[in-house]
Amino acid sequence: MRCKFFAILLTLIGLVAHGWAAEKKPILTLMTHDSFAVGEDVLTQFEQQHGVALKIIKSGDAGAALNQAILSKANPLADVFFGVDNTFMSRALKAGIFMAYASPLLSKIPDELELDPHDRLLPVSYGDVCLNYDREWFSEKGMDPPQDLDDLLKPAFKGLTVVQNPATSSPGMAFLLATVGRYGEAGYLNFWQQLRANDAYIANGWTDAYYGQFTRAKGGTRPIVVSYASSPPAEVFYSETKLDEAPTAAVLGSQTAFRQIEFVGILTGTRQPELAAKLVDFMLDSRFQRDIPLHMWVFPANPTVPLPDVFVRYTHKADDPVMLTPETIEAGRERWLEAWTETVLR
Fold first, then answer.
1. Is 297 left (phi over 0), alpha (psi -120 to 50) or beta?
2. Are 284 and 124 within 8 A, CB to CB?
3. Which of 14, 119, 243, 266 has the most Cβ atoms closer than 10 angstroms to its Cβ?
4. CATH superfamily placement of domain 2-126+259-314
5. Confidence (pTM)
6. CB 257 within 8 A of CB 322
7. Is 309 within 8 Å of 166 (Cβ atoms)?
8. CATH code given to domain 128-258+320-345
9. Model confidence over 7-56: pLDDT tens digits?
């Protein structure tokens, strides 16, 4: 009887010790935007490899999340931040919220994606923001789809286009930057004046534009929308019926798309810099990178990672996208937005 009692006691002690050990597992916090998505098994693998509990804080869109990180600089809410893109990069670096870390995985990342020479922000993924069109709609109308931004200004395309407000939408801002890069400071407002006169619809965000106004949505009336070059494979992947070809296509002619790059960085003030560095390495390595296309529908920054078949078959990248330096964007952003608002909305 006494032996049985001691056996039970030892078991209870073991369970308590196990629970205490679990509670003592360090917590590593990743702050990001609401669109962050990755397989649960991927996060679990990192936790098991490094004996850590990973906490994810989603903090609105990329701009809102970054502002929150900047405001909490003195007492950071997280150890690592993912989601700064090249439209906000200069602002993030000026705020001094990231520490330098030259991950050994950078050797696998193309130089053209590495925009910070001091390795405070490291590229994780990228995608091309561009026009998408409904192939069936144009086929039924016997019309040629747009191949260039200038096509949107033609009388035949009146009332066919929906774009997003750059003040409230990340792809909207990227498309505004595409027009600045394409037409220059002297010409981009003229493009927008003509586009507005040609009855373009201005949506607040991507969801309203794509799932509300675009003809691929129920009740949608506009067959041209600003979206991503990776939207056509997403249409195939999520289709309820098997498709042999994508029902939409991306417009990727010279200087028609803006290349959006997303970065990860270690927040200054983290109390776990070594663990934070391991998470950055993990996000640049093959296991995490393989998961990016079918969860966030953009390209992994690491080109050694094989792409899923639906990406290979239905996705194309722009050969000559608009690329503005982060410094140029930061210097012009507010001026461009104010002029755009005055020209398009008032």
1. left
2. yes
3. 266
4. Periplasmic binding protein-like II (3.40.190.10)
5. 0.86
6. yes
7. no
8. 3.40.190.10
9. 554 555 555 444 444 457 899 999 998 889 999 999 999 999 999 999 99
